[in-house]
Amino acid sequence: SQMASFAACVAATYSASVVESVTSSCFFELQDTAPPSSKNAYPEIACLCSWEALSTSA
């Protein structure tokens, strides 16, 4: 019947919205995944200065 299918539809809609609200609140928790934006982090690199290159080529 239409009434039974309407009731099932309403129940599914409310159930989905409860799951969605629980899921979305989970994403707003504070997570430390990177250094703070005020701290610069530079990767270590190997570098050959120009004066070192000149002394080794002579």
Q: Please, could you describe this protein's structure?
A:
The structure is a single chain. This protein has 58 residues and is mostly helical. The protein has a domain at 1-29. The chain is built from two helices and no strands. The chain has helices at 2-27, 50-57. The protein is rod-shaped and about 80 Å long. The model has no long low-confidence stretch (mean pLDDT 61).
Overall helicity: 55-70%
Strand content: under 5%
CA-CA gap between termini: 95 Å
* Silhouette: rod-shaped
Number of helices, counting only DSSP H or I runs of 4 residues or more: 2
Q: Return Rg in Å.
A: 30 Å
Classify the oligomer: single chain
Number of strands: 0
The average pLDDT score comes to 61
Low-confidence stretches: none
What class do helices, strands and sheet pairing give? mainly alpha
Biggest β-sheet, characterized?
none
- Written as H for each helix and E for each strand, in order along the chain, the element string is HH
What's a concise summary of this model?
By secondary structure, the chain is an all-alpha fold. It is built from two helices and no strands.
Task: Show the helix and strand layout.
Elements: H1 2-27, H2 50-57
Based on the model shown, name its key terms.
58 residues, mainly alpha, rod-shaped
